[in-house]
Amino acid sequence: MSYERRVLLRHSLASIIALGLTGLSRFLYSVIVSRRFGVEELGRANSLISQAFFLAIPLSFFAVALGKYASEFLGRGDKDAIRSITLPSFLLPLAGLLLIPFNVYLSLLATFRGIQLTLRSFLYGIHRGEHYAYIITLAFFGFLFGFLLPNVFAPYILFLGFVSLFSLGYLVKFNLFGKPRKDELTLLFSYSSFAFIGALSGVFLVQGPYFISEYLAGAEVAGRVAAVLSVAFLLTYLPQVVQSAIIPLFSYKYGRSGDDYVRFLAEKTTRVLVLLTALGVSLLMLLGREVLSMFFSFDVGPDFYLALMAMEVYIAYNPCIVALNSTAYVRKGTFVALLGAIASLLSWLYLIPTFGSFGVMIGLIIGYAIILLGSTHYSKKLLGVSPRIYLPLLAALALQSLVFVSKVALMVGLLLFVIYERKDIKDVLSSFKSFRGKESG
């Protein structure tokens, strides 16, 4: 079995666990808090948590660069270079503790989240994604225990706090700290200055809807947004299993001058993600609204459909923008992400006060669509990725819009999509069979 195949397998299995538990935590939190404390309290709590997660991006300033260069150095066999960039990367999140005098919950959540993001990027970068899954699994028990406490923030503080403690123990046990060296630090700072803006823009489109909606329309609207997005974002964690597995390989192969492999991997991954997500979104549209409304004790409305379509676009562009950021074109990826975030923010200033939670979802689609167009342009120009990989996405979105007519119309649309994508479906199935056959052999 090739090294790349082993990494894909380990990281895929690890991501199923880690991303699944992370996504499940947000959904469970939203359901339990809304039933126990009410939808307005859910809105306020999710607003502060999202602000903390947003602040965690500057605190994890080096995280993206740490993962990229750790993977590149691993490809070159330079372990001392890996150790030299670890210490400053993990020390920076501790700056979040300076916020304790202002808001202790905001401070702790931001600090712990910054450490988690740094650890995730680092472990996937050095091709130990399965170890990250172990840590997340153990910490998840702390999250569940937190619901036994009367504090609304206890589940996340315990969850992320345990991740931080396990991170320290892991780094010490495996001797992953080293003396920082000038050459590696220069690379770390240079790349991070651009990757940080892109990461901040991307996270704003994930966390921003919670606190922006509370600011512009109140806690009740923010609670409805939290309920809808807790499921919609859960959708993104499952397809990201593939994405998380291949991100380190982009940098690893780039470090070995494997440009053609980067293009191939970006196209192949996008095709698989678009197909699986389109099918998943269609099924959720058929059943999800009624089930979700039962969980939260109020009708989530057509907002749910728009949220799913927004996530579909988000998932589709990720492999290409990650390929840009993981190679030599981080500035292009950053520019595209920033443009999308600004577009969503400006649109929200009008859409949220006017349409409430429905406006949040429209603004998300606007921002994600702009990032999709930009990443498509630059990945074609710089990496040679064909824009035709997004044709199934356009077909899926057009057919899924039939849900606003009726569920019967959507079922017809789903059938037409399966017919349209029959060749890709056969290719994906044969690829999985081939993969399993080689593994067993």
From TrEMBL:
Keywords: Cell membrane, Membrane, Transmembrane, Transmembrane helix. One of its GO terms (cellular component) is plasma membrane. The chain crosses the membrane at residues 12-32, 52-70, 90-112, 132-150, 156-176, 188-206, 226-251, 272-292, 304-323, 335-352, 358-378, 390-420. It is found in: Cell membrane. InterPro entries: Poly_Biosynth_Transport. It is a multi-pass membrane protein. This is Lipopolysaccharide biosynthesis protein.
